Amino acid sequence: MNVKQWFMLVLMAVGVLGSAFSVAGDVEDKISERLSSAIPGLEIVSVRESEAKGLYEIHSGGGETVYATQDGQYLFTGDLLKVTSMGIANVTKETKANARHKAMTDFGRDGLISYKASDEKTVIDVFTDIDCPYCRKLHDEVPKLNDYGITVNYYAYPRSKPGSPSFVKYVSVWCAEDQQSAMNAAKAGHTVPAATCDNPVLEQYELGQRVGVTGTPAIVLEDGNIVPGFVPARNLAEGLGLL
Fold first, then answer.
1. Three-state SS sequence of the chain
2. Could you report the per-residue pLDDT of 49-73, keeping only the tens digit for each?
3. pLDDT value, residue 63
4. Rounded CA gap, 168 and 173, in Å?
5. Do the Cβ atoms of 69 and 16 come closer than 8 Å?
6. The pairing of beta strand 122-128 with beta strand 150-156
7. What is the pLDDT of residues 143-162, one digit of tens each?
8. How many angstroms separate the CA atoms of 79 and 93, rounded?
9. What is the C-alpha to C-alpha distance for residues 147 and 141, in angstroms, rounded to an integer?
10. Planar angle of CA 56, 57, 61, nearest 5 degrees
11. Is the entire prediction scored with pTM above 0.90?
12. Nearest in space to 125 (alpha carbons), one of 102, 104, 148
């Protein structure tokens, strides 16, 4: 579910919700039940009270966040901001980053195609598409990223979805005897010999959907924050405090 679809569903929910229910009992369960009833098919991953007392965070299966009042009658989308002694903090962004970090950690490192830095200082997880032009530009930067001490882990995210030519190409790369050579060739636009085997391509693609990947490349940092799109190696290294 993308942001626009989620927002439309929220608007639908606002229009069909009836009178307020009693807040006695488990508030989170009641909010979940109310929204699930109002929006059939909506996948609610979690409901919990936010930092702002009286507001509840609702996380959908597509990685989106919406906020509800305690009775579940009023909803809003967008970022929740907090005034601190250091300025304005984006509570929503921090919450999403923490959830993304947990999802990535729980998924584990098995099945990744990795380009390791010899003097590793940090790691980035990149959701990539074999045929994405900007993914290929980023791949050209991998040697520089390694030189800066950045290890690159590739997760499969064929944007054209399972069964598409890009998906099949990624499977062939993953199943190749030399995955790095096959990835280098595919990113350069060369044909990789077709191959099949038990592979994690679909699972990695589904992980990308859960953590909110909407385009490629999508660079997930160690703290769970996500950097969308192509970033030159030097700029990324500077942003990570390595220069």
1. CCHHHHHHHHHHHHHHCCCCCCCCCCHHHHHHHHHHHHCCCCCEEEEEECCCCCEEEEEECCCCEEEEECCCCCEEECCCEEEECCEEEEHHHHHHHHHHHHHHHHHCCCCCEEECCCCCCEEEEEEECCCCHHHHHHHHCHHHHHHCCEEEEEEECCCCCCCCHHHHHHHHHHHCCCHHHHHHHHHCCCCCCCCCCCCCHHHHHHHHHHCCCCCCCEEECCCCCEEECCCCHHHHHHHCCCC
2. 888 888 888 887 666 788 888 888 8
3. 67
4. 9
5. no
6. parallel
7. 999 999 999 999 999 998 89
8. 7
9. 10
10. 145
11. no
12. 104
Residue 79 pLDDT: 86
Residue type, 226: I
Q: Round to whole Å and give the CA distance between 128 and 152.
A: 11
By the 8 A CB rule, do 137 and 160 touch?
Answer: no
**231: Cβ–Cβ under 8 A, 6 or more apart, which residues?**
138, 219, 239
Distance CA 120, CA 96 (A): 26
Q: Which single residue is written with the structure tokens 């679809």? A: 5
Contact (Cβ atoms closer than 8 angstroms) between residue 195 and residue 176 = yes
Sorted by sequence, the CB contacts under 8 Å of residue 142 that are 6+ apart come out as 115, 152
Q: Which two tokens mark 161?
A: 């979805």
As a whole number of angstroms, the distance between CA 235 and CA 216 comes to 18
Rounded Cα distance, 164 and 205, in Å: 13
> Exposed e or buried b for every residue in 79-110, given b needs 16+ CB within 10 A?
ebeeeeeeeeeebbbbbbbebbbebbeebeee
In one letter, which amino acid is 242?
A: L
> Residue with structure tokens 């439309």?
8
